[in-house]
């Protein structure tokens, strides 16, 4: 099952984000939004960071993926993915 398929067909509640952070599959899962249900996520493993967004009509989708290696640290991947989410939302994909 892919990451997208494992998410519910709606934005995530705070307790669901906490559960994802406890999962062994991910090292970090954070919402881009400051409050309310999470419609935009940054998900990190040892090897990559993904920006994931929820739209009511399309569900969850991966907006950006940054591979982590000797030249790209996690913080750089998180920043790039956050910028991708903000750009995605600013391009008229806001719900």
TrEMBL record:
Protein name: DUF7964 domain-containing protein
Domain DUF7964 span(s) in chain numbering: 3-87
Biological source species: Haloferax volcanii (strain ATCC 29605 / DSM 3757 / JCM 8879 / NBRC 14742 / NCIMB 2012 / VKM B-1768 / DS2) (Halobacterium volcanii)
Family annotation (Pfam families): DUF7964
InterPro entries documented for this protein: DUF7964
């Amino acid at each position: 099952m892919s990451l997208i398929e494992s998410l519910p067909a709606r934005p995530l509640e705070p307790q669901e984000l906490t559960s994802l952070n406890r999962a062994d599959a991910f090292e970090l899962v954070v919402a881009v939004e400051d409050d309310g249900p999470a419609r935009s996520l940054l998900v990190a493993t040892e090897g990559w960071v993904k920006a994931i967004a929820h739209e009511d009509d399309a569900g969850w989708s991966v907006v950006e993926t940054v591979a982590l290696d000797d030249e790209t640290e996690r913080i750089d991947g998180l920043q790039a993915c956050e910028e991708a989410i903000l750009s995605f939302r600013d391009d008229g994909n806001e719900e």
